[in-house]
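Example record for the data management plan.
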Amino acid sequence: MQAFHTDVRDRIIKLVKGILEQNSLITDVTPSTKLVDAGLSSMDMVNLMLGVEAEFDFTIPQSEITPENFKSVETLERMVATQLKLAAAA
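Corresponding structural encoding:
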């Protein structure tokens, strides 16, 4: 189970860093880093949402597209893990 969460976290961090690099921003991204503090704009958040959907091959339910879920890598990881578990159980 730990490997699953580490994989999800690493993939999300890679997505965040990719968006930051497109904006010529290089910053350390940890699980607790607030994404807006790292430099992500509202448009970047939309790109991150689309990137997460493509990376993990699922559509984020409208009810899960909240500021709380996109606050940090940690909060995003929890939401993605929950959605992947729900999809696997279906």
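Summary line stored alongside the record: Residues 2-22 form the longest helix (21 residues).
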